[in-house]
Description:
- The chain is of the alpha+beta class.
- Helices cover 60% and strands 15% of the residues.
- Strands 2-3-4-5-1-8-11-10-9 form a nine-stranded mixed sheet. Strands 6-7 form a two-stranded antiparallel ribbon.
- A hairpin with an 8-residue loop joins strand 3 and strand 4 (60-68).
- The longest helix has 61 residues, at 299-359.
- The mean pLDDT is 81.
Amino acid sequence: xxSHCFGLYYxxxxxxxxxxxxxxxxAYPGATPVSRREEMVLQIPFVGGTIxxxxxxxxxxxxxxxxxxxxxxxxxxxxxxxDRPIPDLLAMPARFMFQQAELAGAIFAYLxxxxxxxxxxxxxxxxxxRERRQQLKARTGIQVxxxxxxxxxTGFTTTETCWLVGKDVPGLDTSKAEDLSELSxxxxxxxxxxxxxxxxENEEVLWDLVLLExxxxxxxxxxxxxASWLTHTQIQLEQLSATLVEHNRVxxxxxxxxxxxxxxxxxxxxxxxxxxxxxxxxxxLEVVDRRRWERQSDFPRQxxxxxNALDEAHRAIAGMTRPLDFREFELLKTGVEEVEGRIMxxxxxxxxxxLVTLAIEPGHWTSKGILLALVILIPVxxxxxxxxxxxxxxxxxxxxxxxxxxxxxxxxxxxxxxxMKRSQSDDVMAADIRAGLGREMNExxxxxxxxxxxxxxxxxxxx
Length: 463
Protein backbone atom coordinates (compact mmCIF):
# COMPACT_ATOMS: atom_id res chain seq x y z
CA UNK A 1 0.00 0.00 0.00
CA UNK A 2 0.97 3.63 -0.45
CA SER A 3 0.39 6.50 1.91
CA HIS A 4 0.88 10.12 0.87
CA CYS A 5 1.34 12.76 3.60
CA PHE A 6 1.68 16.50 3.22
CA GLY A 7 3.71 19.34 4.65
CA LEU A 8 3.99 23.06 3.94
CA TYR A 9 7.15 25.10 3.36
CA TYR A 10 7.19 28.89 3.29
CA UNK A 11 10.36 30.67 2.22
CA UNK A 12 9.38 34.13 3.44
CA UNK A 13 8.03 35.71 0.26
CA UNK A 14 7.75 35.38 -3.54
CA UNK A 15 10.39 33.28 -5.29
CA UNK A 16 12.03 33.50 -8.71
CA UNK A 17 11.91 29.76 -9.40
CA UNK A 18 14.64 29.61 -12.05
CA UNK A 19 17.09 31.48 -9.85
CA UNK A 20 16.18 29.25 -6.91
CA UNK A 21 16.80 26.17 -9.07
CA UNK A 22 20.32 27.39 -9.87
CA UNK A 23 20.91 28.08 -6.19
CA UNK A 24 19.72 24.57 -5.22
CA UNK A 25 21.40 22.72 -8.09
CA UNK A 26 24.54 21.66 -6.15
CA ALA A 27 22.50 20.11 -3.32
CA TYR A 28 19.45 19.00 -5.34
CA PRO A 29 20.51 18.30 -8.95
CA GLY A 30 17.09 16.76 -9.62
CA ALA A 31 15.25 20.08 -9.17
CA THR A 32 13.21 20.58 -12.34
CA PRO A 33 10.70 23.27 -13.41
CA VAL A 34 7.43 21.68 -14.56
CA SER A 35 4.12 23.08 -15.79
CA ARG A 36 1.10 22.11 -13.69
CA ARG A 37 -2.37 23.47 -14.46
CA GLU A 38 -0.82 26.33 -16.48
CA GLU A 39 1.49 27.30 -13.63
CA MET A 40 5.24 26.76 -13.41
CA VAL A 41 6.31 24.79 -10.34
CA LEU A 42 9.78 23.74 -9.22
CA GLN A 43 9.70 19.99 -8.48
CA ILE A 44 12.46 19.04 -6.04
CA PRO A 45 13.06 15.42 -4.93
CA PHE A 46 15.03 15.94 -1.73
CA VAL A 47 15.23 12.65 0.15
CA GLY A 48 14.41 8.97 -0.26
CA GLY A 49 15.28 5.60 1.23
CA THR A 50 13.96 2.98 3.63
CA ILE A 51 12.98 3.06 7.27
CA UNK A 52 14.43 0.13 9.26
CA UNK A 53 11.73 -2.29 10.18
CA UNK A 54 10.88 -2.64 13.87
CA UNK A 55 10.10 -6.12 15.21
CA UNK A 56 6.84 -7.22 13.68
CA UNK A 57 6.70 -4.17 11.36
CA UNK A 58 7.12 -4.12 7.55
CA UNK A 59 9.99 -2.35 5.81
CA UNK A 60 8.89 1.13 4.69
CA UNK A 61 10.20 2.76 1.53
CA UNK A 62 9.81 6.53 1.32
CA UNK A 63 10.32 9.40 -1.10
CA UNK A 64 9.91 13.11 -0.32
CA UNK A 65 9.35 15.70 -3.05
CA UNK A 66 8.71 19.40 -2.68
CA UNK A 67 6.59 21.34 -5.16
CA UNK A 68 7.83 24.93 -4.80
CA UNK A 69 5.52 27.66 -6.10
CA UNK A 70 6.38 31.19 -7.16
CA UNK A 71 4.32 32.76 -4.38
CA UNK A 72 6.76 31.37 -1.81
CA UNK A 73 4.78 28.41 -0.49
CA UNK A 74 5.85 24.87 -1.23
CA UNK A 75 3.84 21.70 -0.71
CA UNK A 76 6.02 18.79 0.39
CA UNK A 77 4.69 15.35 -0.53
CA UNK A 78 5.93 12.41 1.58
CA UNK A 79 5.19 9.04 -0.02
CA UNK A 80 5.51 5.89 2.10
CA UNK A 81 5.17 2.42 0.58
CA UNK A 82 5.04 -0.95 2.33
CA ASP A 83 3.63 -4.42 1.89
CA ARG A 84 1.37 -3.99 4.90
CA PRO A 85 -0.24 -1.00 6.68
CA ILE A 86 1.88 0.84 9.28
CA PRO A 87 -0.36 1.61 12.26
CA ASP A 88 1.84 4.47 13.58
CA LEU A 89 1.86 6.17 10.18
CA LEU A 90 -1.91 5.86 9.74
CA ALA A 91 -2.60 7.13 13.26
CA MET A 92 -0.25 10.16 13.40
CA PRO A 93 1.63 10.85 10.14
CA ALA A 94 3.43 13.98 11.43
CA ARG A 95 4.75 12.21 14.52
CA PHE A 96 5.86 9.24 12.43
CA MET A 97 7.81 11.47 10.01
CA PHE A 98 9.63 13.50 12.66
CA GLN A 99 10.65 10.41 14.58
CA GLN A 100 12.71 9.28 11.57
CA ALA A 101 16.05 11.06 12.02
CA GLU A 102 17.06 11.00 8.34
CA LEU A 103 13.69 12.25 7.13
CA ALA A 104 13.37 14.95 9.81
CA GLY A 105 16.92 16.12 9.11
CA ALA A 106 16.18 16.33 5.38
CA ILE A 107 13.10 18.47 6.05
CA PHE A 108 15.16 21.10 7.86
CA ALA A 109 18.09 20.73 5.44
CA TYR A 110 15.91 21.77 2.49
CA LEU A 111 14.74 24.90 4.32
CA UNK A 112 18.30 25.84 5.34
CA UNK A 113 19.64 25.15 1.83
CA UNK A 114 16.95 27.30 0.23
CA UNK A 115 17.74 30.27 2.49
CA UNK A 116 21.48 29.73 2.18
CA UNK A 117 22.07 29.26 5.92
CA UNK A 118 23.82 26.55 7.93
CA UNK A 119 21.23 26.24 10.67
CA UNK A 120 18.30 27.71 12.52
CA UNK A 121 20.52 30.13 14.45
CA UNK A 122 21.34 32.02 11.22
CA UNK A 123 17.79 32.40 9.90
CA UNK A 124 17.01 35.49 11.99
CA UNK A 125 19.91 37.49 10.55
CA UNK A 126 19.83 36.39 6.90
CA UNK A 127 17.27 39.11 6.01
CA UNK A 128 17.47 41.46 9.00
CA UNK A 129 18.39 44.55 6.95
CA ARG A 130 17.45 45.92 3.53
CA GLU A 131 20.95 45.18 2.21
CA ARG A 132 20.81 41.57 3.40
CA ARG A 133 17.37 41.09 1.87
CA GLN A 134 18.71 42.34 -1.45
CA GLN A 135 21.67 39.96 -1.18
CA LEU A 136 19.31 37.06 -0.37
CA LYS A 137 17.20 37.80 -3.44
CA ALA A 138 20.26 38.08 -5.68
CA ARG A 139 21.64 34.79 -4.33
CA THR A 140 18.50 32.63 -4.04
CA GLY A 141 15.66 34.41 -5.84
CA ILE A 142 13.68 34.75 -2.58
CA GLN A 143 12.14 38.20 -2.08
CA VAL A 144 11.47 38.32 1.64
CA UNK A 145 8.42 40.15 2.98
CA UNK A 146 9.40 41.59 6.39
CA UNK A 147 7.31 40.90 9.49
CA UNK A 148 7.30 43.76 11.97
CA UNK A 149 10.37 45.98 11.59
CA UNK A 150 13.13 43.62 10.47
CA UNK A 151 12.17 39.95 11.00
CA UNK A 152 10.43 37.67 8.51
CA UNK A 153 8.26 34.57 8.57
CA THR A 154 9.54 31.24 7.25
CA GLY A 155 9.41 27.59 8.19
CA PHE A 156 7.84 24.17 7.75
CA THR A 157 4.55 22.85 9.07
CA THR A 158 2.81 19.53 8.61
CA THR A 159 -0.60 17.99 9.09
CA GLU A 160 -2.20 14.68 9.95
CA THR A 161 -3.80 14.44 6.51
CA CYS A 162 -3.15 11.18 4.63
CA TRP A 163 -4.08 9.88 1.18
CA LEU A 164 -4.09 6.09 1.05
CA VAL A 165 -3.74 4.24 -2.24
CA GLY A 166 -4.48 0.53 -2.63
CA LYS A 167 -7.39 -1.62 -3.74
CA ASP A 168 -7.19 -4.20 -0.97
CA VAL A 169 -5.69 -2.57 2.11
CA PRO A 170 -5.94 -4.93 5.12
CA GLY A 171 -8.06 -3.48 7.90
CA LEU A 172 -9.22 -0.50 5.83
CA ASP A 173 -13.00 -0.02 5.97
CA THR A 174 -14.18 1.73 2.81
CA SER A 175 -17.86 0.84 3.12
CA LYS A 176 -18.81 4.32 4.37
CA ALA A 177 -16.40 6.27 2.16
CA GLU A 178 -17.77 9.50 0.67
CA ASP A 179 -16.99 9.76 -3.03
CA LEU A 180 -15.40 13.13 -3.85
CA SER A 181 -14.99 12.54 -7.59
CA GLU A 182 -16.90 14.95 -9.80
CA LEU A 183 -17.00 13.17 -13.17
CA SER A 184 -15.50 9.69 -12.70
CA UNK A 185 -16.96 8.01 -9.58
CA UNK A 186 -14.57 6.14 -7.30
CA UNK A 187 -11.32 7.92 -8.13
CA UNK A 188 -10.98 9.48 -4.67
CA UNK A 189 -13.06 9.17 -1.50
CA UNK A 190 -13.06 10.68 1.98
CA UNK A 191 -12.81 8.16 4.82
CA UNK A 192 -13.05 10.75 7.57
CA UNK A 193 -11.38 13.91 8.76
CA UNK A 194 -7.98 14.13 7.08
CA UNK A 195 -8.20 10.65 5.51
CA UNK A 196 -8.62 10.05 1.77
CA UNK A 197 -8.51 6.85 -0.25
CA UNK A 198 -8.13 5.82 -3.88
CA UNK A 199 -8.08 2.25 -5.19
CA UNK A 200 -5.33 3.12 -7.71
CA GLU A 201 -2.70 5.81 -8.21
CA ASN A 202 -3.93 8.72 -10.32
CA GLU A 203 -1.81 11.72 -11.29
CA GLU A 204 -4.74 14.14 -11.56
CA VAL A 205 -6.08 13.10 -8.15
CA LEU A 206 -2.61 13.54 -6.69
CA TRP A 207 -2.32 17.05 -8.09
CA ASP A 208 -5.83 17.98 -6.92
CA LEU A 209 -4.90 16.94 -3.39
CA VAL A 210 -1.56 18.78 -3.59
CA LEU A 211 -3.36 22.01 -4.54
CA LEU A 212 -6.10 21.54 -1.98
CA GLU A 213 -3.68 20.78 0.84
CA UNK A 214 -1.61 23.79 -0.24
CA UNK A 215 -4.75 25.87 0.11
CA UNK A 216 -5.74 24.40 3.49
CA UNK A 217 -2.29 24.55 5.07
CA UNK A 218 -1.52 27.91 3.47
CA UNK A 219 -4.74 29.38 4.86
CA UNK A 220 -3.82 28.27 8.39
CA UNK A 221 -0.29 29.59 7.99
CA UNK A 222 -1.46 33.00 6.75
CA UNK A 223 -4.03 33.23 9.53
CA UNK A 224 -1.25 32.62 12.05
CA UNK A 225 1.04 35.14 10.34
CA UNK A 226 -1.72 37.76 10.31
CA ALA A 227 -2.37 37.15 14.00
CA SER A 228 1.35 37.53 14.74
CA TRP A 229 1.16 41.01 13.21
CA LEU A 230 -1.20 41.92 16.05
CA THR A 231 1.59 40.92 18.45
CA HIS A 232 4.11 43.05 16.52
CA THR A 233 1.63 45.92 16.58
CA GLN A 234 1.08 45.59 20.34
CA ILE A 235 4.84 45.78 20.93
CA GLN A 236 5.10 48.85 18.70
CA LEU A 237 2.21 50.51 20.56
CA GLU A 238 3.89 49.87 23.90
CA GLN A 239 7.10 51.48 22.65
CA LEU A 240 5.11 54.42 21.30
CA SER A 241 3.36 54.83 24.65
CA ALA A 242 6.71 54.97 26.45
CA THR A 243 8.01 57.49 23.91
CA LEU A 244 5.14 59.96 24.22
CA VAL A 245 5.97 60.76 27.84
CA GLU A 246 9.46 61.84 26.79
CA HIS A 247 9.72 65.36 25.34
CA ASN A 248 12.68 64.49 23.18
CA ARG A 249 12.92 65.35 19.51
CA VAL A 250 15.52 62.65 18.74
CA UNK A 251 13.37 59.87 20.17
CA UNK A 252 10.24 61.05 18.39
CA UNK A 253 12.02 61.33 15.05
CA UNK A 254 13.34 57.78 15.48
CA UNK A 255 9.91 56.44 16.47
CA UNK A 256 8.23 58.21 13.55
CA UNK A 257 10.75 56.63 11.17
CA UNK A 258 10.12 53.20 12.70
CA UNK A 259 6.33 53.61 12.49
CA UNK A 260 6.58 54.58 8.79
CA UNK A 261 8.85 51.58 8.14
CA UNK A 262 6.49 49.34 10.11
CA UNK A 263 3.49 50.64 8.15
CA UNK A 264 5.14 49.95 4.77
CA UNK A 265 6.10 46.41 5.84
CA UNK A 266 2.55 45.72 7.01
CA UNK A 267 1.00 46.86 3.75
CA UNK A 268 3.42 44.67 1.77
CA UNK A 269 2.44 41.70 3.92
CA UNK A 270 -1.30 42.48 3.87
CA UNK A 271 -1.35 42.89 0.08
CA UNK A 272 0.54 39.63 -0.45
CA UNK A 273 -1.66 37.75 2.04
CA UNK A 274 -4.97 38.94 0.62
CA UNK A 275 -3.85 38.13 -2.91
CA UNK A 276 -2.80 34.62 -1.86
CA UNK A 277 -6.11 34.02 -0.06
CA UNK A 278 -8.06 35.18 -3.11
CA UNK A 279 -5.99 33.05 -5.50
CA UNK A 280 -6.43 30.02 -3.23
CA UNK A 281 -10.19 30.36 -3.54
CA UNK A 282 -9.82 29.71 -7.27
CA UNK A 283 -7.83 26.47 -7.01
CA UNK A 284 -8.17 24.66 -10.38
CA LEU A 285 -9.47 21.11 -9.88
CA GLU A 286 -9.78 18.26 -12.39
CA VAL A 287 -11.20 15.36 -10.37
CA VAL A 288 -12.40 16.48 -6.93
CA ASP A 289 -15.87 18.00 -6.67
CA ARG A 290 -15.38 21.42 -5.10
CA ARG A 291 -18.77 21.50 -3.34
CA ARG A 292 -18.21 18.16 -1.66
CA TRP A 293 -14.72 19.18 -0.52
CA GLU A 294 -15.94 22.49 0.91
CA ARG A 295 -18.31 20.73 3.32
CA GLN A 296 -15.38 19.86 5.58
CA SER A 297 -12.89 22.52 4.54
CA ASP A 298 -11.78 25.03 7.19
CA PHE A 299 -10.25 27.38 4.61
CA PRO A 300 -13.21 29.83 4.58
CA ARG A 301 -12.91 30.18 8.38
CA GLN A 302 -9.14 30.69 8.18
CA UNK A 303 -9.69 33.26 5.42
CA UNK A 304 -12.17 35.14 7.62
CA UNK A 305 -9.89 35.10 10.68
CA UNK A 306 -6.90 36.28 8.64
CA UNK A 307 -8.97 39.13 7.21
CA ASN A 308 -10.15 40.16 10.69
CA ALA A 309 -6.58 40.17 12.02
CA LEU A 310 -5.36 42.25 9.07
CA ASP A 311 -8.18 44.77 9.49
CA GLU A 312 -7.50 45.14 13.23
CA ALA A 313 -3.76 45.56 12.70
CA HIS A 314 -4.40 48.12 9.96
CA ARG A 315 -6.62 50.21 12.24
CA ALA A 316 -4.04 50.11 15.04
CA ILE A 317 -1.14 51.07 12.76
CA ALA A 318 -3.16 53.88 11.16
CA GLY A 319 -3.80 55.30 14.64
CA MET A 320 -0.10 55.30 15.59
CA THR A 321 0.68 58.50 13.68
CA ARG A 322 -2.02 60.60 15.39
CA PRO A 323 -0.24 61.11 18.73
CA LEU A 324 3.01 61.65 16.83
CA ASP A 325 1.33 64.34 14.72
CA PHE A 326 0.12 66.05 17.91
CA ARG A 327 3.61 65.91 19.36
CA GLU A 328 4.95 67.38 16.12
CA PHE A 329 2.56 70.31 16.63
CA GLU A 330 3.98 70.77 20.12
CA LEU A 331 7.51 70.66 18.73
CA LEU A 332 6.52 73.23 16.10
CA LYS A 333 5.18 75.46 18.86
CA THR A 334 8.45 75.03 20.77
CA GLY A 335 10.36 75.89 17.61
CA VAL A 336 8.36 79.09 17.17
CA GLU A 337 9.22 80.05 20.74
CA GLU A 338 12.90 79.40 20.02
CA VAL A 339 12.73 81.64 16.95
CA GLU A 340 11.10 84.37 19.05
CA GLY A 341 13.97 84.03 21.53
CA ARG A 342 16.52 84.45 18.76
CA ILE A 343 14.71 87.53 17.44
CA MET A 344 14.88 88.98 20.92
CA UNK A 345 18.61 88.20 21.02
CA UNK A 346 19.12 89.99 17.70
CA UNK A 347 17.23 93.00 19.06
CA UNK A 348 19.54 93.08 22.07
CA UNK A 349 22.56 92.83 19.79
CA UNK A 350 21.32 95.74 17.71
CA UNK A 351 21.03 97.81 20.86
CA UNK A 352 24.51 96.72 21.89
CA UNK A 353 25.86 97.68 18.48
CA UNK A 354 24.59 101.19 19.10
CA LEU A 355 26.35 101.16 22.42
CA VAL A 356 29.55 100.00 20.71
CA THR A 357 29.50 103.19 18.70
CA LEU A 358 29.52 105.12 21.93
CA ALA A 359 32.23 102.84 23.35
CA ILE A 360 34.77 103.78 20.70
CA GLU A 361 34.57 107.48 21.59
CA PRO A 362 37.36 108.81 23.91
CA GLY A 363 36.92 108.72 27.70
CA HIS A 364 35.14 106.52 30.32
CA TRP A 365 37.35 103.50 29.55
CA THR A 366 36.17 101.32 32.46
CA SER A 367 32.49 101.46 31.57
CA LYS A 368 33.37 101.08 27.92
CA GLY A 369 35.41 97.94 28.70
CA ILE A 370 32.49 96.42 30.54
CA LEU A 371 30.22 97.24 27.63
CA LEU A 372 32.56 95.66 25.10
CA ALA A 373 32.86 92.53 27.27
CA LEU A 374 29.06 92.22 27.33
CA VAL A 375 28.88 92.66 23.59
CA ILE A 376 31.24 89.70 23.18
CA LEU A 377 30.07 87.46 26.04
CA ILE A 378 26.31 87.57 25.41
CA PRO A 379 26.34 86.04 21.88
CA VAL A 380 29.20 83.66 22.74
CA UNK A 381 27.41 82.51 25.88
CA UNK A 382 24.18 82.01 23.95
CA UNK A 383 26.04 79.99 21.30
CA UNK A 384 27.57 77.61 23.87
CA UNK A 385 24.28 77.30 25.77
CA UNK A 386 22.44 76.28 22.59
CA UNK A 387 25.16 73.80 21.73
CA UNK A 388 25.02 72.24 25.20
CA UNK A 389 21.23 72.07 25.10
CA UNK A 390 21.19 70.32 21.72
CA UNK A 391 23.86 67.82 22.75
CA UNK A 392 21.89 67.09 25.95
CA UNK A 393 18.75 66.41 23.87
CA UNK A 394 20.66 64.07 21.54
CA UNK A 395 22.41 62.35 24.43
CA UNK A 396 19.14 61.83 26.30
CA UNK A 397 17.47 60.60 23.10
CA UNK A 398 20.18 58.01 22.43
CA UNK A 399 19.93 56.84 26.04
CA UNK A 400 16.16 56.36 25.77
CA UNK A 401 16.49 54.50 22.47
CA UNK A 402 19.16 52.22 23.96
CA UNK A 403 16.83 51.44 26.87
CA UNK A 404 14.06 50.54 24.43
CA UNK A 405 16.37 48.24 22.47
CA UNK A 406 17.51 46.64 25.72
CA UNK A 407 13.91 45.96 26.74
CA UNK A 408 13.14 44.49 23.32
CA UNK A 409 16.24 42.28 23.52
CA UNK A 410 15.11 41.02 26.94
CA UNK A 411 11.70 40.13 25.48
CA UNK A 412 13.31 38.19 22.60
CA UNK A 413 15.57 36.28 25.02
CA UNK A 414 12.61 35.36 27.24
CA UNK A 415 10.61 34.12 24.22
CA UNK A 416 13.56 32.07 22.95
CA UNK A 417 14.16 30.49 26.36
CA UNK A 418 10.50 29.54 26.54
CA UNK A 419 10.64 28.05 23.04
CA MET A 420 13.77 26.08 23.98
CA LYS A 421 12.01 24.55 26.99
CA ARG A 422 9.03 23.64 24.85
CA SER A 423 11.10 22.08 22.04
CA GLN A 424 13.27 20.03 24.40
CA SER A 425 10.20 18.54 26.09
CA ASP A 426 8.63 17.71 22.71
CA ASP A 427 8.81 13.96 22.12
CA VAL A 428 7.61 14.13 18.50
CA MET A 429 11.04 14.74 16.90
CA ALA A 430 13.79 12.16 16.82
CA ALA A 431 16.20 12.55 19.76
CA ASP A 432 19.26 13.51 17.70
CA ILE A 433 17.27 16.08 15.68
CA ARG A 434 15.93 17.56 18.91
CA ALA A 435 19.47 17.71 20.32
CA GLY A 436 20.77 19.41 17.16
CA LEU A 437 18.05 22.05 17.30
CA GLY A 438 18.84 22.57 20.97
CA ARG A 439 22.49 23.29 20.16
CA GLU A 440 21.55 25.81 17.49
CA MET A 441 19.05 27.53 19.79
CA ASN A 442 21.73 27.78 22.48
CA GLU A 443 24.03 29.41 19.93
CA UNK A 444 21.31 31.91 19.01
CA UNK A 445 20.63 32.57 22.70
CA UNK A 446 24.34 33.26 23.27
CA UNK A 447 24.32 35.81 20.44
CA UNK A 448 21.28 37.59 21.84
CA UNK A 449 22.78 37.72 25.34
CA UNK A 450 26.06 39.07 23.96
CA UNK A 451 24.12 41.84 22.22
CA UNK A 452 22.22 42.47 25.45
CA UNK A 453 25.52 42.87 27.30
CA UNK A 454 26.74 45.32 24.63
CA UNK A 455 23.61 47.45 25.05
CA UNK A 456 23.92 47.36 28.85
CA UNK A 457 27.55 48.48 28.65
CA UNK A 458 26.60 51.27 26.25
CA UNK A 459 23.87 52.41 28.62
CA UNK A 460 26.25 52.43 31.59
CA UNK A 461 28.75 54.43 29.55
CA UNK A 462 26.11 57.02 28.65
CA UNK A 463 25.02 57.18 32.28
